[in-house]
Amino acid sequence: MNTAAATPSSLRAWLRLALDALTLKPEPYRFMAAEASLRRALLVVLVVGLLLGLGQALVALPTLTRSPAAVVEAALTGFRQGLDTARSSMTGQMTPEMAALFDALDQGLEAFRPYLLELAAVPAPLPSAVGRFLAWLGGWLSQPFALLAKWLGISIWILLFARLLGGRGGLLPYLAASSLSVIPHLLALFAFIPCVGSLLTAAGSIWGLVIQYQAVVITQELSAGRAVAAVLLPYLLLLFLAVIVSVIAVILIIGLIASGAAG
Amino acid sequence: MDKKLRETLRLVWRGLLLEPTAYDEAAADDNPFVEGVFLVVGIGILAGLGMLIGGLLAWATTPDLGQIKRILLEALRNTAWYEVLRADPEALRRFEQSYELGWRFGELLAPSPSQAFLMLLLTPLRLLLSWLWFGLLAHFVARLLGGNGTLGQTMGAAALAAAPQLLLILGLVPGLAVAGIGTWTLLARYVAVRRVHENLSWPRVLVAVVTPPVLLLLIGLIAGLVSIPVLAGWLGGLFA
To answer: Can you point out the beta strands (E) in A186-250?
Structure first.
């Protein structure tokens, strides 16, 4: 497919473009960078964000039909099950103090139950189902914006470092090409799978960085080494700042403890 | 739809997509100040309308805070901890004061119709002040660094850079967090200044673009530091 020729008009053409981008073929990057607009880039971010949000929205779908009282009961049951699991896992190691703590938590839960149910029944001007639907919709539609913020936030720093390292490309071509880096984040759809899910999410993030690297190479005409540096430097800078802040915080805490001890 | 209005909406859309030619057109307007005011206020009103609807919906779906406050207090009064508190009248008085104060703050932050209507008024005003602050300062810094654009051109292009704020209209769905608008606006402003002061190198354009928000942040920090003792005195007075 000659991706640089025309805008993909079918879903199949867009899927092919995404696949080519994921396998780091240069054509999709050149195609995206060729347009002096963020139109295609925003389309990519919007679709990926909506798909990502759809996974979570579908999981949350049953909560739409559940009454607030049922939600409270489910939460209480979950909490009690957690307490029972903790209790049974500590058989043989349970001290009288810990047993008393577990009993207090159990009794406290039972004492608060009627109040929690009363809180769940507090009326609002509109039926509670409307509120639940709006919260569900808001949660889903927030996903594209969260992805947009993440993509723009990191891309401007990568571009800044790329330019400082001698990059010559413009802002728009780079932003348009780097929007393809959001596609591997679709792996986060499998985040619900225990253990494997978090690995897939991490793999998606790393793959996104590789795509950022390819966007820098193609749009900024940088060597491989400099492009790697441009992509990694924002993260290293962040790490450096985090270390500095932590060191300052530790020094302040030690100083406070020392002055307290002296006083 | 009126042809002029359609053209303006198309220009805003292209500005949102950071199309450089859109910023050239906005800068080349024969009356960029007046056009800028209309553009920024128009974007602000549309965004404010979205936020008004969202605010009203948020209020209409929020349970009665007065009842929540009463139920929580009743629940607390039935705990062993409250019995201990009851034995010390001074501690009880302090707790009741803090509880009242906490709810008073909560009620201030909770959605209400008056707050929703206030957003309709404040959003255009905020955008207008932000445009003037950014446009005037960025132009001053750009000229200081050798830029060749005129003030009118900078103000015209900077007005179009408010286009990403139009997305605040999506605030009509309560709970929808429209993130990334600040960064998007910053990028739009970069494109605007770059197109107007086209003789400036990119680092100089960057300096001109980040100076106004950095300066605002510094002023905010200083104002915050100055107001801390005043606020502490006021809160202390409330607890006394």
So the answer is: none
CA distance linking residue A19 with residue A22, whole number of Å = 5
Judge: A134–B60 Cβ closer than 8 Å, yes or no.
Answer: no
- Interface test mutation site (partner A, options B61, B173, B187, max chain A beta carbons within 10 A): B61
For residues A173 and B1, the model is more confident at A173
- For A217-241, the pLDDT digits (tens) are 999 999 999 999 999 999 999 999 9
Q: What are A10-52's pLDDT values in tens digits?
A: 888 999 999 999 999 999 999 999 998 999 999 999 999 999 9
Residues in chain B closer than 8 A to A122 (CB atoms): 63-64, 67-68, 71
- Report helix angle A96-120 to B65-77, nearest 10: 150
Distance from the Cα of A181 to chain B's closest Cα (Å) equals 17
The pLDDT value recorded for residue A7 is: 65
What residues of A are in contact with residue B17 (Cβ under 8 Å)?
37-39, 42
When mean pLDDT is compared across A107-111, B41-45, B65-69, B144-148, the lowest value belongs to: A107-111
B180/A153 touch (CB, cutoff 8 Å), yes or no: yes
Are B68 and A135 in contact (CB < 8 Å)? Answer: no
From residue A47, give the alpha-carbon distance in Å to each of A39, A59, A143, A262: 12, 19, 10, 60
Q: Is A131 part of the contact surface with chain B (CB cutoff 8 Å)?
A: yes
- pLDDT band of B3, cuts 50, 70, 90: confident
Residues of chain B numbered 172-201 and touching chain A (CB < 8 Å)? 173-180, 183-184, 186-187, 190-191, 194
**Token pair of A11, please?**
């879903």
Q: Cα distance from B229 to chain A (closest Cα, Å)?
A: 22
CB contact at 8 A, A40 and A7? yes
Burial code of B186-215, b = ≥16 C-beta within 10 A, e = fewer? bbbbbbbbbbbbeebeeebbbbbbebbbee
Which one-letter amino acid corresponds to residue A28?
P
Contact A119 B71 (CB under 8 A): yes
